[in-house]
UniProtKB/TrEMBL annotation, chain B:
The lineage of its organism: Bacteria, Pseudomonadati, Pseudomonadota, Alphaproteobacteria, Sphingomonadales. It comes from Pelagerythrobacter marinus. The keyword rRNA-binding does not apply. It catalyses: N(6)-[(R)-lipoyl]-L-lysyl-[protein] + pyruvate + H(+) = N(6)-[(R)-S(8)-acetyldihydrolipoyl]-L-lysyl-[protein] + CO2. This is Pyruvate dehydrogenase (Acetyl-transferring) E1 component subunit alpha. The pyruvate dehydrogenase complex catalyzes the overall conversion of pyruvate to acetyl-CoA and CO(2). It contains multiple copies of three enzymatic components: pyruvate dehydrogenase (E1), dihydrolipoamide acetyltransferase (E2) and lipoamide dehydrogenase (E3).
Length: 325, 327
């Protein structure tokens, strides 16, 4: 017997597989497609579901994302596994010109209940064509909902919420979190809401907004800062679009200081948007300038020693906070 | 699988509707990529479909919903940018998508419809219906990557999709002969292991016959077909576009208008079958329909600022959407 509050220990990656299994069991219109999914990611699903609803696709990113759009327009709820986030560029026409726009362009006649999953493969020595974190590009496209879960529970709950949402959702998963284990709710109807940021640690001196996989670093930074007498509030953004401005502004109104940690490149980053939003709408509550902790505006190198230095760490966040005083 | 007597007259009605719809646009509103010359190709294809079959189309979008049997008033109002338009004035001339008639997209990104039509075919297969999906595209679109990518997927999964090329010989001003390594577009089907058929796109009954065969094949689970309808665009690519060169000769245009007009050709066929009076009645009826559609469009209100927000999302979009510029 399963109780409402039961949990099971799962990694971030296992949580994603479970979310897909549960949603495929719940709704026969949910299908899963992507490159090599029979070998990587969905092996166990092939034991339970037949090939009608599980499609290993040819290497045709733009078209198989578009096939997902077409299927979503006509009664299915496809989950498209786009594997590596740098491949989003190949599929950007179907994502931006079709998925994001079709409801609007048809005057609301149609909806696109599509989920596109993709992984940010940074800190993995795969070099610049596999290691991008391109979510800010898609944040500039109205019509897409963009999620970036940072825990196993959210990886499961947000994917399930995305499948049940009637709009196109792009989920950026972080491979640096794949093996992180957590107690994850067993109840198949526990969802993590789209559009809601979460305060992961309360504090009163500075707000640290963490985007996607920055969360473990932000939480560790808060511990270091606490030892130094600084009380940091850590907000896990969870949803990149639509942005939960309210949670961020409320926090900054109390702390007066804002750090945004984001592994995308600095120019036009999610951090930039949050900084601009707070400067426009919460300027009077700021006691110090906003600081962005991001990847610099250079490409990801193959060399691992150099690559590690590009991305957000505990120490970079701590240093940024210390510059505020 | 030939058209019966009633369906012949219905095909003629839809062809005349397209022709007079476009002529009304020339007279009233100088916007759009006109389908004049393509009527037989479009209507022949659509007459082989059921109401619940899916269609994707192109920037040259006016003919597709009319061919599928859509109501004329909301199409006209859409081109006039009105709130009563089929897309509430938010889509416009290149996007006349009437979902009630199974249209799921008129893509102004050339080649954008291939994956969508393929996905609709996948959907029908997964849901276990016998619906088919028909993808209209131009000769130029066959040079987009989505052409090969999508047909390949439909081929390996035996999806019920008909890829229907309206080959009018020119991608804007670029001739097929100078832009296609294999200008015989139907032959490209060989590369995907599916049937490819070329047909006279000015002969509505010939087009209907080949599409009906492909539809039957698709409904039986035998997979996709590529059809190339050889047609001709009587007007320029778009009637707002300045064309600084003569990329096709006046003689060529005049020849097609004189000898290869699909509406005139089919009218002659029906008259030979003793149906002249019925044709005239259809023409009068369609004139009234088009006049009423223009009046409806002109009298209709424009969309409102709130419509921009109200048509963005199907599920609640979150608090951010209610902020800022909406007010």
């Amino acid at each position: 017997m399963t109780l409402a509050n039961d949990t099971v220990r799962l990694s971030y990656l296992q949580a994603i597989v479970e979310a897909q299994r549960e949603e495929m069991r719940r709704d026969e219109n949910v299908i899963l497609m992507g490159e090599d999914i029979a070998v990587y990611g969905a092996q166990s699903l092939f034991e339970e579901f037949d090939g009608t609803r599980l499609r290993n696709t040819p290497i045709s990113e733009n078209s198989f994302v578009g096939v997902g759009v077409g299927a979503a327009l006509t009664g299915l709820r496809p989950i498209v596994d786009l594997t590596i986030a740098s491949f989003c560029y190949l599929a950007s026409d179907q994502l931006i010109n079709q998925a994001a726009k079709l409801r609007f362009m048809t005057g609301g006649q149609l909806s696109v209940p599509l989920v596109v999953r993709t992984s940010t493969f940074y800190n993995n020595r795969t070099a610049a064509q596999h290691a991008d974190r391109p979510y800010p590009l898609f944040m500039n496209t109205p019509g897409l909902k963009i999620l970036a879960p940072a825990t196993a529970s959210d990886a499961k709950g947000m994917l399930k919420a995305a499948v049940r949402d009637d709009d196109p959702v792009v989920i950026f998963e972080d491979i640096n979190l794949w093996n992180k284990k957590e107690d994850v709710p067993v109840d198949p109807d526990v969802l993590a809401p789209i559009g809601k940021a979460l305060v992961r640690r309360e504090g009163s001196d500075v707000t640290i907004v963490s985007v996607a996989g920055c969360l473990p670093h932000a939480l560790k930074a808060a511990e270091v800062l606490a030892e130094r007498g600084i009380s940091a509030e850590v907000i896990d953004l969870r949803t990149i679009a639509p942005l939960d401005s309210e949670t961020i502004l409320n926090s900054v109104a109390r702390t007066g200081r804002l750090i945004v940690a984001d592994n995308s490149h600095k120019v036009g980053s999610v951090a930039s948007e949050i900084a601009a939003m707070v400067c426009e709408e919460g300027f009077d509550t700021l006691r110090r300038p906003v600081r962005r902790v991001t990847a610099p505006q250079v490409h990801v190198p193959y060399n691992g020693t150099l690559e590690k230095q590009l991305f957000v760490t505990r120490d970079k966040i701590v240093s940024a906070v210390e510059t505020l005083d | 699988m030939s058209l019966d007597s009633d369906r012949q007259l219905e095909a003629f009605r839809r062809m005349v509707r397209i022709r007079l719809f476009e002529e009304a646009l020339i007279a009233h509103n100088p916007v759009g990529h006109l389908s004049i010359g393509h009527e037989a190709a479009i209507v022949g294809a659509c007459m082989a479909l059921r109401d619940d079959d899916y269609v994707t189309g192109t920037h040259r979008s006016h003919g597709h919903p009319i061919g599928k049997g859509a109501e004329i008033g909301p199409l006209m109002a859409e081109i006039f940018g009105r709130r009563t338009g089929i897309c509430k004035g938010l889509g416009g001339s290149m996007h006349l998508t009437d979902a009630r008639m199974g249209l799921i997209c008129e893509s102004a990104i050339v080649g954008g419809g291939f994956p969508l039509a393929t996905g609709a075919g996948l959907s029908a297969q997964v849901r276990g219906t016998d619906q088919v999906s028909l993808c209209f595209f131009g000769d130029g679109a066959t040079n987009q990557g989505t052409f090969g990518e999508s047909i390949n997927m439909a081929a390996i999964w035996k999806l019920p999709v008909i890829y229907f090329c309206e080959n009018n010989g020119y991608a804007v001003t670029t001739p097929v002969a100078t832009s296609h390594g294999q200008p015989d577009i139907a032959r490209r089907a060989d590369g995907f292991g599916i049937p490819g058929v070329a047909v006279d796109g000015q002969d509505v009954e010939a087009v209907h016959a080949v599409v009906a065969q492909a539809v039957a094949r698709a409904r039986q689970g035998e997979g996709p077909t590529l059809i190339e309808a050889r047609t001709y665009r009587f007007d320029e690519h778009s009637n707002r576009l300045a064309i600084p060169i003569e990329y096709r000769s006046q003689d060529e245009i005049e020849y097609h208008r004189r000898e290869r007009d699909p509406v005139a050709l089919y009218r002659a066929v029906l008259c030979e079958r003793g149906r002249q009076q019925e044709c005239e009645a259809v023409e009068n009826e369609v004139r009234e329909t088009i006049d009423a559609a223009v009046a409806f469009a002109r009298e209709s209100p424009e969309p409102e600022w709130a419509d921009l927000w109200d048509n963005m999302y199907a599920s609640p979009p979150g608090p951010e959407h209610a902020r800022g510029d909406r007010k």
